[in-house]
Amino acid sequence: MKLDPRVEVIFQDSFCSEMREAALGLMKLLAQTAHEMFVDFEELVEKDTSKTNVHDGTVHPLTIRVINHVKFLFDYQSTLKLLFQEFETGSDTESQLAVVLTKIMQALQNNLDGKSNQYKDPALMSIFLANNIHYMVSSVRRSQAYTW
């Protein structure tokens, strides 16, 4: 992780090396905290046991909440990409942020698979899953996430 060139210019003097190091340390700490928050969010999505029953196979409230949170994050994608560069290695071809978001979406899908088992009718179970997956895909396509 590197400091923004503007920060380097402002603190270019040799007397400011401690300031540059402190700023870099703060950025690394912020990156680690952001990463941990995403991991925690993924776990919350995966383990959500809300008792909200959707009897007609429509989109589950959990799906709506998770997608809204993810879409909100796209407003900060440049900052998040910068922070998540800390966790990328030279051999990574994927953005670490994209990997984390994919894990969140997979956690949501796993949770929905479990919730679909509440349906006795296999057709309604399939409709529930199809509606939720369609909502996820169409929401991401309509958002800025599709350009990531």
Describe the structure concisely:
The chain has 148 residues and is mostly helical.
Largest sheet geometry: none
Number of domains: 1
Proportion of β residues?
Answer: under 5%
What's the overall average pLDDT, rounded? 85
How much is the radius of gyration in Å? Answer: 20 Å
Please report the total strand number as a whole number. 0
Helical percent range?
Answer: 55-70%
Elements, N to C (H/E): HHHHHH
Our count of helices gives 6
The rounded distance between the terminal residues' Cα atoms is 20 Å
**Classification by helices and strands:** mainly alpha
What is the 3D form?
A: elongated
Low-confidence stretches: none
Provide an overview of this structure.
There is one protein chain. This protein is mostly helical. The chain has one domain (32-147). Helices cover 68% and strands 0% of the residues. Helix 3 packs antiparallel against helix 5 (96-116), helix 3 runs parallel beside helix 6 (122-142) and helix 5 runs antiparallel to helix 6. It is elongated. It starts with a helix and ends in a 6-residue tail after the last helix. The model has no long low-confidence stretch (mean pLDDT 85).
